[in-house]
Amino acid sequence: MSLTRYLLRKTLWFLGAFVAAVMLNFILPRLIPGNPVDSIVSTLGRGGAEGEALRRVYEAYNAEFGLDKPIWEQFLLYLKNLAHGDFGVSFTLYPAPVSELIGDALPWTIALQLPAILIGWILGNTLGAVAGYKGGNTDRGAFLGSLFISSMPYYCLAILLLYAFAVAWPVLPPSGGYSFGTTPSLTPEFIADALEHYWLPFLSLVLVFIGGQAVGMRSMVIYELNSDYVNYSRGLGLRDRQIIRQIFRNGMLPQVTGLALSIGTLIGGALITEIVFSYPGLGTLLFGAIRQNDYPVFFGIALMITIAVLLANFIVDIAYGFIDPRIRAATRGER
Amino acid sequence: MGLVRFGPRFLVALGIFLAIALFGVLGPYVLTSHTPNDVVGGLYDPPSSEAWLGTDNLGHDVWTNLIYGTRTSLYVGLLAGAVATLIGVVIGTIAGYRGGWLDELLMGITNVVLTIPSFIVLLLISITLQTRTASGVALVIAITSWTWLARAVRAQASSVRTREHLDIARLSGARTASLIVFDVIPYMLSYIIMAFVLQVSSAVLAEALLSLLGLGPSNGVSLGIMLHWALAWEAVRTGAWWAFVPPTLLLTLIAFSLLMMQSSMDEIFNPRLRRGAPRRARRGASIVAPGAVDRSAAAPASAAAGAIIAADEPVDAVTADRGGS
Lengths: 335, 325
What we know:
The complex is a heterodimer of chains A (335) and B (325). Chain A has 335 residues and is mainly alpha-helical. Chain A has 13 helices and no strands.
């Protein structure tokens, strides 16, 4: 009963957030001074088109983008297009549809971020648990190191790694997701090439993430160390490994919540990392869109990321409701 | 040392932060004779006795830019941190203290805003604003980052509300405003101070992120803007380390010192995080009553700063979000 209520409540929050995000994505572009069509037409104008022709082009575009209709009709149109996965067309790469640009970039971003988040989460929590349990110099070293690395913004570590391993000591390729002149395909050569380009962005994400998780897990473990079940297990003469495993399971639950809450920040940081390495994912696409005022691409990516983050959050929250029996007690206790 | 004993870790962190702050505040008058826009050399001149840290892509002095950039970054960080903390505390206190429909409404808004990834909102608003001042950027950062604090403060306020000392204050005729200021807020002060430090640190990084994307303050220079140009002009791949290593290190040092300050403060305010602390929880001093805590309320404090944890123990959960040994 209360689990159902928990799930229902979470679903409501996410629906609310989703609606708010879609509204933001609809309203904000329309607040930008200057009609977006102006910028396309002025680009065309430089090509030599004149007066009457330009005006007709202008009207045609206005009609195509639906900008001549009242605002509520525009909103309905917008929703309808979204439902069909249509984010409009790019300004700078006209007439390439935004959904196609995003579709090309998305696999790279997912391939980079998903393993980084999962591996970082597991390794970071293990390191934190061991450091917290062992104490002494292991702990001091691991804690200060983790705190330092985790306070480093992703892109800072990325820049330093890039300089160290691709410029100062050139062992790894400095940019891109694959070598120039090759086209993405599923041949072994291409995959080997892509893997070589994968290392630096991946490492810079994973290291920061391990640091962040370890700092959190460590204090959870110290918190748990004082509890009765640990003293009891010690009294029984259980081995360290077994005790750590128990502590790990208890300390892990808040870390799951932490994961849910940090996914947004994580993805944001990872996008910047892509820019540093000119990795062909969403981050680099976003960077280009901002520099060239390509609003449809920008807002398309923003909406995509919002949906991805909401979805990831939702999944973690739901999973949490199932793995932690105490959630029922807590939701009931909450006013 | 009176009531509180600050450990060496806190003092070191404070020292680093103050040194950087002095560098940014006094630097323009003492450490350089240029302004950020003076052209002192060519494209990426290496460090010399003229320009200690070389020049950037426009021939500006990197050392001078670094000083002014630190100044802007700290200004944005402190302003955004202060405003975000203020909004969070006000909304959280009102919601927690009042309860009822106002609570439901405020927390509804907070939860929705909390769920939308804040950096996306940050980008969306920033791209909509055509000209951005440092203060404007700080305000935009502030209105996207108060949410987790509001939730945590609400959890604390709603528990403080039921304490006996408030009944006594009410019986002696204190008004609501004075109750909140003198009897509720002081109980949450240690948490609010730690949250402020975290807010500043995440705001500095948020500004750097925006600037790096080219959406930072449109006049002046900040550490993130320096990185933006260094990336745009390929300083990294051409080996012009002086253009990007100094701002990178400064950003990291600012964030690191603030996080370390926060984690050592946490140890002082929250003895259970100390190693070998007695098992007994401080019932009398604990801020949160069992069950009154939204379990994830404490997490984003650290989540925002990159390190993630949500304390799960109901007692002290809100202040237990990070610890040291």
